[in-house]
């Protein structure tokens, strides 16, 4: 089938983006790990405030911390750009980070071992905290068979490279988001495998539940799976200790109550998931990914006005 001029331009742009990704990845693999992480922090701190995402992050911070002073908001904005830059720069070399035992500490590793040895399946839940890519690596490196959900990038050439990068640090099983992915996750749970989902992004049509006191549409999938299969929600979080050194925390599992009122039970589960995310963000606010629009659109319109 012949490509239209628009498709040809789009594919050319995609290939340029993929080439740029290759250049960044190649350079990142040349330098020491901490130097790469430091560069990402400095670069994003310098140029992030010049982007439209800066306004989104500021609005999100003011939603979450309405009583914070302008000075505190400015400090958190600067710090979150540093953390975002570190994550971006570290992604191509995550296999190097994971391969160094001194760089990743796992608190609650015995829970992962129990899941591996037959206490599963579980539904892992987490958010975009610190370098969140460390979490799936910790799960699979503990020997847990787990389907990791992901959202493919629009650029298929870059998406291929992202999957290859994750393959290098041990993540083998991917389940795409969407209807097909949901069916694959249910098949995995039926086989006794665990699944992992991120739970802190806006989900249009999801369950409305409070996050920092403001209703946020949240994916019901984790709670729905937990109730359907009688499996616990297993929360995890990642904390940055110093530069490219991390602590992965395997928290106490969340067990949902099945009262027979499915809608009410799912909503109760979603509220507990949001409460977990909020608690982690309050503990280490600069480490959350503040750059996505988490709350309803009208809140951001109101902020712009």
Write a structural description.
It is a single chain. Helix 1 packs parallel to helix 8 (156-168), helix 3 (52-64) crosses helix 4 (70-90) and helix 10 (221-229) packs across helix 11. Helix 8 (156-168) links the parallel strand 3 (146-150) and strand 4 (174-176). The chain has 305 residues and is an alpha/beta fold. It contains twelve helices and nine strands. The model has no long low-confidence stretch (mean pLDDT 92). It has one domain: Glycerol-3-phosphate (1)-acyltransferase. The termini are far apart.
Summarize the structure.
This protein has 305 residues and is an alpha/beta fold.
Q: Could you state the order of secondary-structure elements as H and E?
A: HHHHHEHEHEHEHEEEHEEHH
Number of domains: 1
Please summarize the sheet with the most strands. Answer: 7 strands, mixed
- In whole angstroms, the N-to-C terminal distance is 47 Å
Amount of helix: 40-55%
State the CATH topology: Glycerol-3-phosphate (1)-acyltransferase
CATH class category label: Alpha Beta
Question: How are the strands of the biggest sheet laid out side by side?
Answer: 1-9-8-2-5-3-4
Backbone CA Rg: 20 Å
Name the structural class: alpha/beta
Mean of residue pLDDT values: 92
Count of runs of 4 or more consecutive helical residues: 12
Low-confidence parts, pLDDT < 50 over ≥5 residues?
none
Taken as a percent bin, the fraction of beta residues is 5-15%
CATH architecture: 3-Layer(aba) Sandwich
Shape: globular
Strand element count: 9
């Amino acid at each position: 089938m012949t490509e239209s001029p628009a498709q040809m331009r789009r594919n050319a742009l995609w290939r340029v983006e993929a080439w740029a990704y290759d250049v960044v990845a190649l350079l990142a693999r040349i330098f020491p790990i901490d130097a790469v992480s430091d560069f990402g922090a400095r670069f994003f701190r310098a140029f992030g405030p010049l982007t439209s995402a800066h306004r989104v992050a500021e609005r999100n911070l003011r939603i979450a911390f309405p009583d914070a002073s302008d000075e505190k908001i400015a400090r958190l904005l600067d710090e979150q750009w540093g953390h975002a830059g570190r994550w971006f720069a570290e992604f191509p070399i995550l296999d190097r980070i994971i391969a160094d035992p001194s760089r990743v500490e796992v608190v609650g590793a015995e829970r992962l071992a129990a899941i591996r040895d037959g206490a599963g399946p579980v539904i892992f839940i987490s958010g975009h905290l610190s370098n969140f890519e460390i979490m799936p690596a910790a799960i699979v490196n503990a020997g847990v068979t787990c389907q990791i959900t992901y959202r493919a990038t629009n650029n298929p050439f870059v998406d291929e490279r992202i999957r290859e990068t994750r393959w290098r640090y041990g993540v083998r099983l991917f389940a795409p988001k969407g209807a097909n992915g949901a069916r694959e996750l249910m098949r995995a749970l039926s086989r006794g495998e665990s699944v992992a989902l991120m739970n802190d992004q806006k989900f249009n049509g999801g369950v409305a539940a409070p996050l920092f006191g403001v209703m946020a549409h949240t994916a019901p999938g984790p709670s729905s799976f937990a109730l359907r299969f009688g499996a616990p929600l297993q929360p995890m979080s990642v904390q940055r200790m110093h530069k490219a050194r991390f602590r992965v925390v395997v928290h106490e599992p969340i067990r949902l109550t099945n009262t027979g009122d499915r809608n009410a039970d799912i909503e109760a589960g979603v509220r507990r998931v949001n409460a977990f995310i909020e608690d982690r963000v309050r503990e280490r606010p600069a480490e959350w990914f503040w750059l996505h629009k988490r709350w309803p659109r009208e809140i951001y319109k109101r902020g712009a006005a």
